[in-house]
TrEMBL record:
Protein name: NAD(P)H-dependent FMN reductase
NADPH-dependent FMN reductase-like domain ranges (all copies): 4-148
SUPFAM superfamilies, sorted: Flavoproteins (SSF52218)
Gene Ontology terms, MF aspect: FMN binding; oxidoreductase activity
InterPro entries: Flavoprotein-like_sf, FMN_Rdtase-like_dom, NAD(P)H-dep_reductase
Xref: Pfam families: FMN_red
GO cellular component terms attached to this protein's record: cytosol
Length: 187
């Protein structure tokens, strides 16, 4: 049975480009062949600002949106966060979603596909890694960084990667697979 990779679109704002980048990466992961690639869009979960009465470590969720999100997070063996950079950091929608659950994240690896302007979302990726480690997620070093993302999306909203993105995606997926296999033994 293939390891399940959730490719999470992290921005939820109207007009976002994340779904177009995530669609490309999902196709790249499927072509890679070592994972069952599953697209996950935070916008579809419509998580309000954290509103559970119990601490997430207890897993005593009261709200349907939390139960649905927890089931999605639990189902994955690995994650790729497709994230923009907002004010030098990850979007609030992603930080909120990370904070909703705890044990469901533990002992799983994560890669980051970041995008933005000239920095390609690097600052957001670096800050995100601190939060991931607190959730016992292993953020891998390999990443895809997409600079000036708007120049790579055509009028039909199709993202066209350049060669360096394709190479980085393969490298990320190869390394993520190694970590996913190893960390599965801890769960």
């Amino acid at each position: 049975m293939a390891l399940k990779l959730h490719i999470i679109t992290c921005s939820t704002r109207p007009g976002r480009v994340g779904p177009h980048v995530a669609q490309w990466f999902c196709e790249a992961a499927a072509q890679h062949g070592k994972f069952e690639a599953v697209p996950v869009d935070l916008a579809e979960f419509n998580l309000p600002v954290y509103n559970e009465p119990e601490h997430p470590v207890r897993q005593q969720y009261q709200h349907a949106h939390t139960k649905d999100w927890a089931a999605s997070v639990h189902a994955a063996d690995a994650y790729v966060f497709v994230t923009p950079e907002y004010n030098f950091g990850p979007p609030p929608s992603l930080l909120n979603a990370l904070n909703y659950v705890y044990k469901e994240w533990n002992y799983k690896p994560a890669g980051i596909v970041s995008y933005g302007g000239v920095s390609g979302g690097l600052r957001a990726a670096q800050i995100l890694k601190q939060t991931l480690t607190t959730l016992k997620i292993m953020p891998i070093v390999e990443a895809v960084t997409i600079q000036n993302v708007f120049t790579l999306i055509d009028e039909n909203k199709h993202f066209t990667p350049i060669d360096s993105h394709l190479r980085a995606a393969t490298t990320l997926l190869d390394e993520l697979y190694k970590w996913a296999q190893a960390l599965k033994t801890l769960r």
